Each structure stands twice: as C-alpha cells, then as structure tokens.
Recover the amino acids of this structure.
C-alpha cells in the first residue's frame, strides 16, 4: 500500500509548510531567542542603559532561597490543580455519560465554566470567599472555621487551587466525555456478562481505554497550571499573603512588567521554558509507555 | 471599562471634529492617563476647554488602564520610539521616571525653554517636594494628589460613647470598645498597608524611612525603617490582629468596602476614598487626621502625598513642547484648580487655589475635605517628610507587604519582619541603582 505522498515539484512541499514555519519562527523561536538574549542583560525599564552581565541574572536567582521555594510551590500547585481537576472531571464525565433524563442539559452546564476568563474566575471566587465580602465566608465563620485567606497562606493556596481547578474541570470533562463515547459498548457488555461489577468494569475496561485521553489531558493540565493560572492569582491574592501563592509565572510577570526588572524576568522565563521542555519530555518518555492507543 | 474607554474616545472624536476644521497646522499633544469614571470626565473637560481656548494645539487624552498599566504602556511606547507627550504616573513610579534621564523632559526646563511664566513657589511645597530635586527644580507636574486620612463612622462611635481618637493609643482604646460592642470582626483597619503603616507613619513622626532624605537626594539610599517606632507600631498591630480588634484588609484598597458597609468603624486610607464614602455610606462620617504617638517628640510632623503627576516625555519638537508648556500653565490657573479640586476630590496644587476654595467657604459644609491639606501643610517638611523616591517602589511595597503579612499571621515577630523588609528592600535598591542611567 502506498503510504507516502509523492510531490512532483521539489518546491511545493516547502511552500506548503512555509506559512506554518513562518508562524512558528516569528511567534515562538524569535521571542524565545529574545528572552535568552535579554536574560544576559541588565537594563533599566526604558532601555536607556544596557550592560551585558553574562549569567549574573541567573546567579542572583539561584542564590535566592525564595526562588527555590517558588519552584517547589509551583510544582505543588500544578500537581494539585491537575490531580483535582482531572479526577473531578472524570467522575462527572462518567456520571454524565449514563443515560439520564435531560443529560444534554447537565453536559452543557458542566462545560460552561470553561468560557469564563481566568481573571473573572478569580473575582468570582473572591466574592464567594473573601473574608469580609464573601458570601460563603459567613457560613464558614458561622460553622466555627477561622477563614481568613488574606493572612492564612494555606487557605489562600487552597483558594487559588480550587479556583484554577474549577475552571479546568469543564475542559477535561469535555475530553473525557468524548473519550467515554468512543469506548465500544460491546466490550463493557461482555465484561458485564462475565460478571464484573461496575467498579471493576471501570478500572479494568474503561480506564485503560481512556488512557490516551488521560495522558493528553495530563500534559495540557500541567501546562495550564504552569502558565494560565496567572490571571487567577493576580485577581485573587497577587501572590500573597507572604509569598504563599506566588508561582513562577506570576513572579515573571511581577518582576518584569510591574517591577521593570527585565533581565531577571527574562532569566526566569528561560528557566521556565527549560522546565516545561524537560517536564514534557519526561511525560512523553516515561508516562506515555503506560498509554495504550 | 471598555465602555468608558469608548465614551472617552467618542468625546475626543467630537472634540476633534469641533476644533480640527479651521486650523491649518494643529500640533497634537498626546496625554495618556489612568483616570476612570467622574475623574475621566474631568480630564476630557480639561482637554476640551484647552483646545477651545486656542487654535494652535490640540490635547488628546487617552485612557490607558490602571496606574501600572499606563506607566507600562508609556515605557513600551517609548521603547518603540512612540511615546506620548504627557504621561500620568503614580507617585510610586517617580523614581523610575526620574532615573530615566533623556526619556523625560523635566518640567522646570520645559517651562524655561518655552518661555512660560512659572514659579514653583506658587505650588504647595508639601506636594511639589515629592516631584522636585533637592535644589527645588520641579521634575514633573503635580496633577492629582491625595493623602492618608482616618475615616470615622460617627454613628458607631456615638454608640460606644467615644470621641474621635487623636493618638494611636486612643485609637487602640476606641477600637477595643468597638470590638467588644458590635464589631467583633473589625475595630479598625486600613488599606495600602505599607503606605499607611510604614511610609506615612514615618513621615508623620519625622523619622526616616530611608537615608538620603528618603531617596530624594540620590539613588544610593538605604532603608532604615526597622527602628523602634515602626517596630512598636507593628507589634501593636500584631497583638490586636489576634482578636481582630485590628483586622488586616489586604495590600491595596480592596478592603475599603468594610468601612462603607459599616463593618469597620475606623478606617485609614486615602482621602480620595471620599467619592465612594459619599455615594455609599448610610451613616454620618468624617475624615480625621492620622493618629500619632504622643511620646514621639514633635509629632505630628506633616504627611506625604499619594496620587499621580504628569511627566513630559523626551525627544519631542520645540513646537510640541511649547504646546505642552502652555497646557501646564492652563492647568495651573486658579479657577481651574478649584474646579479640579471640587470635581474630583483631589487636592488643589496651587496656594492660590487652596485660598480661593477656603474663601468660598467650600470647607464649611465639608471640613473633612480640608483634612488632607491640613496634614500636608501641618509643618514645614523636613528631610524625613518631604517625600519618598525609591526605585522599584511597586515591588518594594510588595516585599514589605509580604513581611507584614507574615508578622500579622504570627509566623515572624515584628522585628524579624521589619529587618527582613529592610534587607530584601536594600538588595532591590542596589539592583535599581545599577540600572539607573548615570
């Protein structure tokens, strides 16, 4: 069987990939190269005085113990956000996949939160759980829980993880639902006839058949938790109290855009870039082995 | 936000349509600002009035988002060789703007070059001190200034039979009473935690926040606020936070609703909070001067300002600068200053405008609108109370807030938090010094 496409002209294949290539070069490689160059510079906000400082920006970062705390915190946040949004989404998808009266309505409602912009998510949760403005805070206080995320770092972290995971649940739900729909019913029926109970059917049939979806979502969720939670953090806690909700991306934004410290900010982005490359590499190298397509 | 933006744009478009036709070569002057709502209307009106008053220049105001957004937009535009002529920058950005020699055109030079009549002595020194060199040369043009005041819910104070407190010990005492009688979650609180509890506290008691006149006399300044006064104050806040006699309300002004809703009966924040208080508070209120510690000799001194000023960007033509200078003269006009003062609630910046507002009896019905002015002019400013000019100020405040939060959460003592604030802040100041244009 003929699998390879044959191009008559030698130039045509290049011409066909050229637009894509141009976009990748202009919007990915060029800014990345800029970031690398910038990370070796010390520059004032206006770009009036520039000096080349080699690795000074990196040295400063690595000699700052607070930076390592931020790295650890970011990994914890990513793990917590990915784990909670994936598990809740899977649970909801399995439930919504059952033949239900008005199932379409439930499914639509569950997809809605994904349309909400991250900063709006932040504001939404702040209005629910702000210590004095929040509606839910009053109930928490009435229940005897000392709720004050403005000063309690753990509570603030919980709040950010909750909001970030909540927003991502819809996206995961959508993919899980599609994944579930693709599982052949005959396999499940055969398992049922063999006497497997629902839980067993789920873990031995459904879950392995969903593994490509889960793997894909795991990668997407980690990237989401790394990069897209910044809007949520900015509107909810601005990295506080203390540093308890400051993630790497938020620090990049804060140091570069607010602080005007472009050199350090660029160095941080480069580190972040390397981190995500390595992380994705590990996922594809090791986790993907467990995936059956 | 987008709608307001659109409204401003529409107003500009209409203004443009009115003035553009007869002029042959109108020089356009771009003015980027961060004012929303009623204050945006004031800006549009000022520009329209100026454009109608003459036919050579046209001021075009553009809303660019929050203060940091506006500043970043201006910096980005400058890097792209496309800076506006006038940029509104909040007081926190002063050092960054000042360090950018060549990127900005100092106002005193602008006025001299353009041959505009300009005497810095006409302006309130408590305000211009912030934006002037140690020689008294005005670098930027003060536009909207405010100061910290203590907002008081008079009805609640009456309920606990208390007078308006004047000193900090009195505040603590009244707050205790409030806390025990109907205010379990908040006796008193404040916004802008570092502005109120470090920056203003230091100036108000004539103690330094940093060396070199708080940075006004050079970028080689060092933080010095881990001193007994600030430590004592923070210790007290930590102690009162335990039972919520004092309750922390966040780094910026997000907690201000706690005053207007009646939850906190005593609340320290900007005098520019007036508009919201007036619109929302369903109780009798006033704005009293900031409290002080009576055992500090000479206290209270004078307060320092918040708000923003107008910076003129560099690299424009002589003709454009002439228009900018004319516009600044136009803004300095006494009647116009009185108008800005009344319409926006910000302070008048010239002595004449203040006198005029006073003579008109403006403060008779609303004495609390004079409070910030009385604080600013309470005494002749000293080295410790002229103003602040620290590089990376936005980030500095974040670092200080982080440390104060740790102290209030009981993770650090007041002393440890202040020491760490000073140490981490000094590192950032050295970093800034390295990048500042020499």
């Amino acid at each position: 069987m003929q699998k390879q496409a044959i191009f008559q002209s030698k130039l045509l294949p290049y011409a066909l990939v050229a637009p894509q290539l141009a976009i990748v070069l202009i919007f990915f490689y060029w800014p990345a190269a800029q970031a690398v160059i910038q990370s070796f510079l010390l520059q004032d906000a206006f770009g009036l005085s520039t000096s080349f400082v080699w690795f000074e920006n990196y040295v400063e970062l690595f000699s700052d113990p607070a930076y390592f705390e931020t790295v650890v915190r970011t990994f914890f946040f990513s793990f917590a956000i990915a784990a909670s949004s994936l598990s809740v989404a899977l649970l909801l998808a399995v439930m919504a996949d059952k033949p239900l009266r008005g199932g379409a309505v439930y499914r639509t409602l569950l997809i809605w939160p994904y349309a909400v912009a991250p900063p709006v998510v932040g504001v939404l949760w702040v209005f629910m759980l702000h210590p004095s403005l929040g509606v839910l805070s009053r109930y928490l206080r009435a229940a005897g829980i000392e709720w004050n995320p403005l000063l309690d770092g753990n509570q603030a972290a919980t709040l950010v993880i909750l909001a970030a995971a909540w927003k991502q649940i819809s996206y995961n739900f959508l993919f899980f639902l599609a994944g579930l729909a693709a599982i052949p019913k005959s396999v499940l029926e055969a398992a049922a006839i063999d006497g497997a109970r629902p839980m067993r059917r789920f873990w031995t049939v459904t879950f392995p058949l969903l593994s490509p979806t889960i793997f894909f979502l795991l990668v997407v969720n980690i990237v989401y938790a790394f990069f897209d939670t910044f809007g949520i953090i900015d509107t909810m806690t601005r990295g506080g109290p203390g540093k308890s909700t400051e993630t790497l991306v938020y620090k990049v934004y804060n140091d570069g855009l607010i602080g005007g410290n472009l050199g350090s900010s660029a160095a941080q982005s480069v580190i972040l870039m390397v981190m995500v490359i390595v992380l994705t590499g590990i996922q594809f190298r090791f986790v993907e082995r467990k995936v059956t397509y | 936000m987008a709608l307001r933006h659109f409204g401003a744009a529409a107003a500009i478009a209409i203004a443009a349509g009115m003035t553009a036709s007869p002029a042959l070569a109108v020089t356009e002057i771009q003015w980027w600002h961060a004012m929303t709502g009623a204050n945006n209307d004031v800006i549009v009106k000022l520009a329209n009035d100026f454009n109608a008053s003459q036919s050579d220049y046209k001021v075009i105001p553009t809303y660019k988002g929050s203060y940091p957004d506006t500043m970043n937009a201006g910096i980005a535009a400058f890097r792209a060789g496309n800076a506006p002529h006038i940029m509104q920058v909040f007081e926190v950005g002063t050092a960054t703007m000042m360090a950018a020699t060549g990127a900005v055109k100092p106002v005193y030079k602008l006025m001299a070059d353009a041959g505009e009549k300009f005497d810095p002595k006409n302006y309130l020194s408590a305000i211009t001190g912030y934006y002037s060199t140690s020689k008294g040369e005005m670098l930027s043009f003060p536009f909207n200034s405010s100061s910290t005041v203590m907002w008081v819910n008079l009805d609640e104070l009456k309920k606990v039979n208390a007078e308006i407190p004047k000193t900090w010990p009195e505040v603590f005492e009244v707050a205790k009473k409030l806390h025990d009688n109907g205010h379990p979650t908040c006796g008193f609180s404040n916004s802008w935690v570092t502005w109120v509890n470090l920056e203003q506290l230091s100036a108000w008691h004539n103690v330094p926040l940093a060396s070199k006149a708080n940075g006004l006399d050079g970028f080689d300044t060092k933080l010095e606020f881990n001193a007994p006064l600030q430590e004592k104050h923070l210790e007290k806040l930590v102690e009162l936070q335990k039972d919520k006699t004092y309750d922390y309300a966040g780094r910026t002004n997000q907690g201000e609703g706690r005053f207007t809703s009646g939850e906190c009966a005593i609340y320290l924040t900007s005098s520019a909070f007036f508009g919201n208080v007036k619109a929302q508070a369903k109780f009798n209120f006033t704005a009293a001067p900031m409290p002080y510690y009576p055992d500090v000799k000479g206290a209270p001194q004078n307060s320092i300002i918040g708000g923003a000023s107008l910076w003129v960007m560099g690299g424009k033509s002589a003709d454009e600068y002439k228009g900018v200078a004319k516009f600044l003269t136009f803004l300095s006009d006494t009647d116009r200053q009185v108008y800005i003062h009344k319409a926006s609630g910000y302070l008048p910046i010239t002595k004449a405008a203040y006198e005029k507002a006073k003579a008109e009896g403006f403060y008779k019905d609303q004495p609390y609108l004079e409070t910030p002015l009385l604080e600013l002019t309470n005494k002749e400013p000293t080295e410790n109370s002229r103003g602040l000019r620290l590089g990376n100020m936005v980030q500095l405040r974040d670092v200080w807030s982080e440390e104060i939060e740790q102290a209030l959460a009981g993770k650090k003592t007041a002393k440890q938090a202040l020491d760490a604030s000073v140490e981490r802040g000094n590192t950032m100041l050295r970093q800034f010094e390295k990048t500042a244009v020499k």
User: Anything to note?
Assistant: The radius of gyration of chain B is 22 Å. The first helix of chain B runs from residue 2 to 20.
